[in-house]
Amino acid sequence: MRRLFLALLILLAAYAGYPYLTLYWLNDALLADDKQALERLVDFPRVRADLKTDVKSDVYAKTREAAEKRPILGTFGEALAKLLAPSLVDSTVDTMVTPDAILDNPTVVEHRKKDESFSDFVDYAFFATPTTFKLDLKDPEKPDSPTLTAIMAFSGFRWRVVGIDLPPVETLFSGAK
What we know:
The chain is α+β, with helices and mostly antiparallel strands. It has helices at about 1-30, 35-40, 45-70, 70-95, 100-105, 105-115, 170-175, and strands at about 120-130, 130-135, 150-155, 160-165.
């Protein structure tokens, strides 16, 4: 009985530590400019689809707000957004959310040159559910910067980044003056 308990305890500890190990591998992939490792750790098609849906929803919500405040101009803007947003958002996300684009990001390149870990960007990292892990990321040099949330899911006996939750649009531009 004691061996069974010990075995279960070891399995539980391994399971609890696995997403943190995945974060370590993700950090290594970024620093080593390892595209293949990054593709194994991030489900890019799923992340892109999730982002496209979220960004389009935000654009439509903002244009609805404008239409309520200024009926004539807002209605025109809402119609224009519905016409242009799908292709603009899709092409932008398809261009920006790729292994190459992430590995060529200036912040990633700078960290790679200095061989600096990305751990200082991690504001919070813990389980949201037994098969979902939440990771809040913030710019360590700007304490009031918006938080970007990465979602990892356990599937096929491995953890992968499957989604990105962007901060509200207002917080993205609140510091820009």
